Amino acid sequence: MRRPAFQFYPADWRNNAKLRRCSWGARGVWIELMGLMHDSDNYGVLAWPLKQIAQALGAPIKLLKELVDCGVLYGIEQGDCEPMIYTPVSGRVKGAPVELVAAQPGPLWFSPRMVRDEYVRQRKGESTRFGSDYDAPSPSPKPPIGEGKGAAPRHRQGDGSTSSSSSSTSVPNGTSAAADAWQRFPMDEGWLPDDVSLASQLRVAGLTRDCVTAEAVAGFIGHYLTLPDTVENAAGWCKRLVKWAKRQHEFSRGNANESSTARGSRPASGISLADNLNDTSWADGLGTLQPD
Predict the structure, then answer these.
(1) How far is residue 70's CA from residue 26's CA, in Å, rounded to a whole number?
(2) CA–CA separation, 286 vs 249, rounded Å?
(3) What SS3 class is residue 75?
(4) Is beta strand 185-186 parallel, antiparallel or unpaired with respect to 231-232?
(5) Mean pLDDT to the nearest integer, 30-56
(6) What's the pLDDT band for 271 if we cut at 50, 70, 90?
(7) Which of 52, 95, 184, 188 could form a disulfide with 88 if both were Cys (CB 3.0 to 4.6 A apart)?
């Protein structure tokens, strides 16, 4: 049976770097488009031209093209679409790659996150009230938060549409799948800091969220992409990021102070520093002080 709903994580939606590049109008079209792909017979995939998708949504086609240009919507209008390859990872051991979207002629448009999550859901055979395609008894519910030992929060990344129940994966443009919060993993091009861990580390360091700029995050990711042997869990990467941002912040303040000092000690134009020091013209006309 078709599921009436999908999971939605506001933190993933707000923190997705590609989606943040889009205009407010394009973001609104994307949530509508996710609903359309959710209702598709091939979950997360639409084999329609952009013009037909725009007509179905009642949206301007230029906003759909904006989603494509920003790397939010994957696929192709004409020609052959590149395949989407999913590589499951358990710990640091990679599994066999799986082709989730085959190479085929366009038009073909899809959400990698939705396609991947649907594959994982079917593969694990999880039966929820939204989910199995057969009338099987539902498994025992998971214990509420706080019950059951060893439960750990999930580190999630993606387009904000659905959850991911797999470990790290590889999909187009380096998008990362969810990893357990306590599981160590190498830096990934699509990594985003966890809000809770980042806020905690900022409080400890005495910094504000403004110190962690997009430029600082990009530089941090670029640095650790060159160090593939470095692995951390979600909180560990946030701790490293805050240290990185703090050094960048202190370096910027130091340069600003040096620049200010240099401007303050610069002699007047056309007058040497020695002439300035020996100049007593400031006392002309003051006269001699006489005692009362």
Answers:
(1) 10
(2) 48
(3) strand
(4) antiparallel
(5) 93
(6) low
(7) 95
pLDDT at 149 over 60: no
In the 8-state DSSP scheme, what is residue 4? S
Over residues 247-263, mean pLDDT: 67
Residue type present at position 171: V
Closest by CA to 63, choosing from 105, 19, 8, is 19
Beta bridge mates, 105 = 80
Q: What's the pLDDT band for 176 if we cut at 50, 70, 90?
A: very low
Q: Domain segments of the chain: what residues?
A: 1-134+153-183, 184-265
The answer, as to whether pTM is greater than 0.70, is no
> Residues 185-188: contacts with CB within 8 Å, 24+ apart?
185/92, 185/231, 185/232, 185/233, 186/92, 186/224, 186/228, 186/229, 186/230, 186/231, 187/221, 187/224, 187/225, 187/227, 187/228, 187/230, 187/237
Q: What's the CA gap between 215 and 200, in Å, rounded?
A: 21
Specify whether domain 184-265 bears CATH 1.10.8.1180: yes
pLDDT band at 264 (very low <50, low <70, confident <90, very high): low
Annotate 248-281 with three-state secondary structure: HHHHHHHHHHHHHHHHHHCCCCCCCHHHHHHCCH
The span from the CA of 56 to the CA of 52, in Å, is: 6
- Report pLDDT for 157: 46
Residue 70 exposed, middle or buried by CB count within 10 Å (0-12, 13-18, 19+)? middle
Q: Please say whether the dihedral angle defined by the alpha carbons of residues 26, 31, 36 and 38, taken in this order, is positive or negative.
A: positive
